[in-house]
Amino acid sequence: MAHGHPGDSATSRLRYHRILPALIGTTVCLSVAHAADTSKPPTHHTAPAPSAATAPRPAPAEHIVVHRLADSAPGNQPGGGLIHLQDGVKSVSTVSQDFISKQAPMATAFQLASMLPGANVSSSDPMGFSPNTDITVRGLDNSAIGYVLEGMPLNDVAAYSGTPSQFADSENYQEIALSQGSADLDSPVLNAAGGLMNLTFRDPAKKAGGDASVSYGSYNTNREFIRLDTGDIAHTGIRGFVSYSHGATDNWRGPGRDEKQHVDFKFLKEWGQGNRASLIGTFNTTITSWYPEPTMDTWKSDGIKGQNNLLAHYDSSNPENGANYWRLWRDGERTLYGGAPVHLTLTDHLTLDVTPYAQLAYGNWPGGSTLSETGLYQGTQALSDTLNLPGAQDGVGVVRADYTQRSYRSGFTSALHYKTGWNDFVLGYWYDYGDDNEQQPFTAVQTNGYAPDIWAQNGRDVIRLSNGERLLGGSFHTISQTNALFIGDHMSLLHDHLAIDLGFKAVMMSRDGTNSMPGPQYHVGSNSMEPLPRLGVRWRIDAENQIFFNATTNFRAPDQSALYNTYDPSSGEMYGTGSADVRNEYSISEELGYRRTGRWIIGSLTLFNYNFTNRQISTQAVQNGSVVSTTMNAGGQTSRGVDVEIGLRPWHHFSPYVSGEYLHATIDNDLMSGGDLLRTRGRIAVRSPTLQAAAGLSYDDGHIFGVATVHYTGHQYATFMNDERVSDHTTGDLAIGYRFSDHIHLHQPTLRMNFINITNEHYLSGVASPTMNAKDTTGVYGTTIAGSAPSYFIGGGFAALFTASTGF
């Protein structure tokens, strides 16, 4: 797989010159071992690696090594890097650097995985800066998917969601692997009924060098990236890379500008027979502008204009209108992820994997709102204070409703493998500690629309009461701890024609929280213990054909927000009622699939089935003007369908790829709403398009390259009563470029153009906030249940981006 630019090491260049003409067009190539630096980590999700007991000893310099051309040469991967050889017991789809390196450099992990079967990405801007985004896999949303970067979890500690713009810069990904049906036994995730997105960094190069790129395009977008590889540091065998990027863009609709700075690093030490230790991390700081999420009525009336955008100028004459000023909706976030994955070969039969990790995050998700100067409440406690809000009219002034989250997370995973004969036993333990503090202070807005300190960290800028306390709409603190024990056995039988995976994981999770707002609730807590068995089987019929079966169980506790009461400071009324008596989601899933790995065709077909109880649906709620994440219990659900993907090995430098999914997801029971039951049994689940399809065509002759992709998403319902839905839509992207030959100290200078949403389709890309019913409905018991309008993401418009890059 290519790293940042095709052929990141001299081995790639040597390899082509040493291939015999008779081997051209076959699946192998010859290269001299140790002739140059490969800078390539072990390939994941392929056939199991030899154990320490059977692994070959280091070869002398003249040893000839056989490589699969399709898996090693840039521009020569099946499906243009959108499909990978698989040999496991479950469905996995992979995007490699060969595809990633041709996309817009600020593309997120969600956007890069959008071509894979089952993946439905809802975005709000074409460039990938906005956090207003979601991904569903087989109809299961962002918060139902685990995100892991080289063994460390990236999910939010409170809401399980992932923000892909924070994960890593695309140039540093070696591959993105999406397991649609389940997470691995040893994965440090709790919520992965929707599968696992496993992200892998490239390994640092063995020789000093680097990569650099600059980009400029639509909406005054600019981005700069540089990565430096240390090579072998002082003959210690330690090598590393550090990268930095800066990017900024104007909102493609409405006012606003986003800016992001990002740092990735990885340091690696390898020694002995397979020993490997690394230190990895990523830091992200960003300020983004909110894209309003319209209802169906406002979408039909205004489209991408009018009331579906924030105001470019502050309206001081009307507080309700002034609250829509774009500067009051800027979202500031800082995150730091760090991990130290270690693999040790203890004996010929015993290996140990340990990954300690830590995560720090701080963010403010504000929104413009209005607040009364009198008649205030702190929780349920009436206040005698009178505020003096600038520009207030009739006792009501504009404020910025801040919503801050400060979280800390740390833990470790450990797995001890013992291989003997045809058994590979694993025994492991995962511990995770989370400390999450969420509050909602308010900041006064000046008559020109200015509100200081976008981060809401400066205590003197927020509104305070006469006793010195901050006026708050909410304040809660949660300590969560997870302990998980797992045991498994991978059995390789009949010369590895038959592989059987057996596993069992026991997860114990506790939450202990306090609500600091005056009122009936102070201490909350919950405890969960769930047994999670699994079984997987793979039968290799011959060298080109396999069948596999996988059965797993998953559970998920509701978001932390479900535990707490929240209050309106203008009335003392509760926005939401929390409860410690929350029900965990539990699911059982099965997959039955067929794989083909032929001379020209690589593909798979997978049948899947899910059964859920207490299905947790991620949604958004407006709390005192701030838009916050929460969950709703959707009862039972059954999801069935089929995934297919096919990629061709390169033919005359062309590599086509197609994927598709048919999904039938239904609600199993009537749901309670407003003291009555909605007739939802048998209706289609929200965010579950029946049909999806994607196709891509890549061309790469080593110099000229291009990728054309098209993606179709069928209609999807936004309510549990199926009385409102998003229409189907089709979008297409195009990338074209040219790589020059090496020149002096520059390695393959490259020029590239990316065209995103090339037809400038204006469409609703997904459901932001589903509701029970959009229209007034008569319940089972005869009462009228009022409708509530869902909100939607508006997909990003057309964008073009030029990028110049080079290695050195």
From TrEMBL:
<comment type="similarity">
    <text>Belongs to the TonB-dependent receptor family.</text>
</comment>
<keyword id="KW-0406">Ion transport</keyword>
<protein>
    <submittedName>
        <fullName>TonB-dependent receptor</fullName>
    </submittedName>
</protein>
<feature type="domain" description="TonB-dependent receptor-like beta-barrel">
    <location>
        <begin position="308"/>
        <end position="758"/>
    </location>
</feature>
<keyword id="KW-0472">Membrane</keyword>
<keyword id="KW-0813">Transport</keyword>
<dbReference type="InterPro" id="IPR039426">
    <property type="entry name" value="TonB-dep_rcpt-like"/>
</dbReference>
<dbReference type="Pfam" id="PF07715">
    <property type="entry name" value="Plug"/>
</dbReference>
<keyword id="KW-0410">Iron transport</keyword>
<dbReference type="InterPro" id="IPR012910">
    <property type="entry name" value="Plug_dom"/>
</dbReference>
<keyword id="KW-0408">Iron</keyword>
<keyword id="KW-0998">Cell outer membrane</keyword>
<dbReference type="InterPro" id="IPR000531">
    <property type="entry name" value="Beta-barrel_TonB"/>
</dbReference>
<feature type="region of interest" description="Disordered">
    <location>
        <begin position="37"/>
        <end position="58"/>
    </location>
</feature>
<dbReference type="Pfam" id="PF00593">
    <property type="entry name" value="TonB_dep_Rec_b-barrel"/>
</dbReference>
<dbReference type="InterPro" id="IPR037066">
    <property type="entry name" value="Plug_dom_sf"/>
</dbReference>
<feature type="compositionally biased region" description="Low complexity">
    <location>
        <begin position="44"/>
        <end position="56"/>
    </location>
</feature>
<dbReference type="InterPro" id="IPR036942">
    <property type="entry name" value="Beta-barrel_TonB_sf"/>
</dbReference>
<keyword id="KW-0798">TonB box</keyword>
<feature type="domain" description="TonB-dependent receptor plug">
    <location>
        <begin position="86"/>
        <end position="186"/>
    </location>
</feature>
<keyword id="KW-0732">Signal</keyword>
<keyword id="KW-0812">Transmembrane</keyword>
<keyword id="KW-0675">Receptor</keyword>
<keyword id="KW-1134">Transmembrane beta strand</keyword>
